[in-house]
Design a protein that fits this description.
The structure is a homodimer of 306-residue chains.
Chain A (H helix, E strand, L loop, with lengths): L14 E5 L5 H10 L3 E5 L7 H5 L3 E2 L3 H5 L4 E4 L4 H9 L13 E4 L5 H13 L3 E4 L2 E2 L1 H7 L2 E6 L2 H14 E8 L3 H29 L4 H8 L7 H11 L9 H17 L5 H18 L7 H8 L6
Parallel strand pairs in A: 1-2, 1-4, 2-3, 4-5, 5-6, 8-9
Antiparallel strand pairs in A: 7-8
Chain lengths: 306, 306
């Protein structure tokens, strides 16, 4: 991949503002620190930043403080409303940024909001990219994330070395919002896989089969998927630790469904998955991993799992 | 894998009856011929058997004739009604079979029918196995099918060398009907993947993305699946040749849904997939491959594809 940062081509250290230090943001910010950049971190819960501060990051009292004098500002928060607040709200990042700097939002958020931010940023001479990621906390720790970029292609190339510090696959997808739309495609695919996986394993057990043995028959062919390989064993073990949180997936599926409607699409599989995950969340599954969907499938059939 | 037939452990040639010579049955019967067995073929359309007859197979005028004096009778036909007819109907195979012989049905069919056949067979001293396969026409030609076996485990081990002549993964799944149930699990998984894949690609195009570029971002992570890797490129190219026929998948999903109901399960994702595929079939897609589901997704949104 072009633009990889190696010892031989060490990049000029940049001043980076980083907003958010959750399960994804912390390791991502850590990689940027490790690459030699100066990092100012802001996060809602200061305690979450302690590890980064110990490693040499500076504390920013607000998104605006973290963004002041930064060459590049990264955002990795939870929900679109959080993005709106830390970027456009009181003491938000954008107002503190200088012309020629770049704002990059890693949060999975709304494509419409991404386009709005890009437009408001452009009025200040700031370039904004939407750059949601897939690969989860493991990908964040290993810097193997897939980063889907929307915004100016030239700016994308300029910041590619930074993006390749936290991810292994960086693909420019189109104008502002296109990164978010691409992430929605990813989530629609997963929604289908997870629905099928939950119903298939429930069927297997109800039919009296040994689900582990079933996986020997179905795991290597046309039914194969990342979900089947990685999540089915955890489902069978009744281990519903996240992985990826149900409450975040409900958010993502809601964004996808809103945008599908806006685009004139009828996507009944996506709508069903959103309803199932919403019900799962409302029945106590908000902080489980997405593979807990089988609990909802079982509940609807009057069964328990495992 | 145990019981593999190699040159060093050439099996005793058996007399085999084979009923069905379609896109799956022909290459499967061919492998049995190649392994040195004597094969009597019967199929509804005699012309389809010409290649096998040229290679040394004998013609059986009816299922009963093909089954007479056979050590093992294989069935690979289209629908459960076909299975019922060629096994239990007039001039059906079962009445012609001798005690101690084995009937193996490769057709994807109803688990209830499989259990009925096993019971009727047992009354004659015949062992019946349900042994549906996955892997498609390519797996049939390459003898790499996954074979999911229901019935007596001892009989399964006895015929394992024969099964490994046509498949590479042979797993005993439980009593009669369990092979069929396992295949239903496989099809429920695929139903979810295909629904997600169709809706995701339709979303990608409607959002103005370049779907091929989107695949670079989403193909390697949690959204990955056999369907995404193998079928998305064909969907994007508008190539809907089967692969696996829509009309057969509608059959399979109907069997799965009937059995889910019988087992007290509510599987809304499966029900949705059955409805979508039924509508696709009824709108001219019966002889397309299952990846043509995107035509149904597009139609529902008032769009065409590609």
């Amino acid at each position: 991949m072009s633009g990889e940062t190696t010892a031989a081509t060490k990049p000029t250290p940049l001043r980076i503002g980083f907003i958010g230090a959750g399960v994804m943001g912390s390791p991502m910010a850590g990689h940027l620190l490790d690459a030699g950049h100066e990092l100012v971190i802001h996060t809602r819960t200061e305690a979450r930043a302690h590890d980064l501060l110990d490693r040499g990051a500076y504390w920013g009292e607000s998104p605006a403080v973290a963004a002041e004098e930064a060459d590049v500002v990264f955002v990795m928060v939870g929900f679109p409303d959080d993005v709106r607040q830390v970027v456009l709200g009181n003491d938000g990042a954008l107002d503190a940024m200088s012309p020629g700097t770049v704002l990059i939002d890693f949060t999975t958020s709304d494509p419409i909001l991404a386009a709005q931010i890009a437009e408001l940023a452009a009025e200040r001479g700031v370039a904004a990219l939407d750059a949601p990621v897939s690969g989860g906390d493991i990908g964040a720790r290993r810097a193997t994330l897939s980063i889907m970029v929307g915004g100016d292609p030239g700016v994308t190339e300029r910041v590619r070395p930074l993006l390749e510090t936290v991810g292994s696959t960086v693909v420019w997808q189109g104008p502002a919002g296109s990164g978010q739309h691409t992430k929605m495609v990813n989530q629609i695919l997963i929604a289908g896989s997870m629905t099928g996986l939950s119903e298939a394993l429930l069927y297997a057990r109800a039919a009296g089969l040994d689900p582990s043995r079933v996986l020997e028959s179905v795991g290597g062919g046309a039914a194969a998927s990342w979900s089947l390989t990685n999540l089915a064993p955890r489902i069978l073990a009744g281990d519903f630790d996240p992985g990826f949180l149900v409450e975040h997936f409900v958010k993502d599926l809601g964004i996808a469904l809103d945008n599908a409607g806006r685009l004139g699409l009828e996507l009944p599989g996506l709508a069903l998955a959103r309803d199932l995950y919403t019900s799962l969340r409302d029945h106590g599954g908000a902080r489980d991993g997405t593979h807990a969907l089988i609990l909802e499938s079982a509940r609807r059939s009057g069964l328990s799992w495992p």
